[in-house]
Amino acid sequence: MMMSILLRGSLLSVFAVAFAALLTLGTQTVEAKGTLAASGYDPVSYFSGRQPVKGQAGITARHDGLTYRFASAENRDRFLANPGKFAPQYGGYCAFGVSRGYKVGVDPLAFKVVDGKLYLNYSRQIQRQWNRDVPGHIARADSNWPDLK
What we know:
By secondary structure, this protein is α+β, with helices and mostly antiparallel strands. It is built from six helices and four strands.
């Protein structure tokens, strides 16, 4: 019985370490200066009511140290006129992760626009957890973000 409990505890520890390592890998692609925001997806397209679209390499703008790509010059110009309206919250890091106190990369297709703000998540599975208490997670993330920046 004791051996079974120890074995289960060891397995849980291994899974926790592996999950933490995966989360850490995600931050490496987003944290570096000059990285491509939202994996190249057009931030303005998230507000269209349809699926977001990939931006073009030749239509870009920089904001807060990140490069954004756009599907059209019109979308780029809309972004430049008001980047705070279109840029993802928490510097493009996973909203659920920030609510938990850490920064992690995102799947640009795991997103939600809430009250006119774009929130990205690490994965669609994580997004399902985030969707269980969106207002609570946003409140915690808003509280955590100043220390995580």
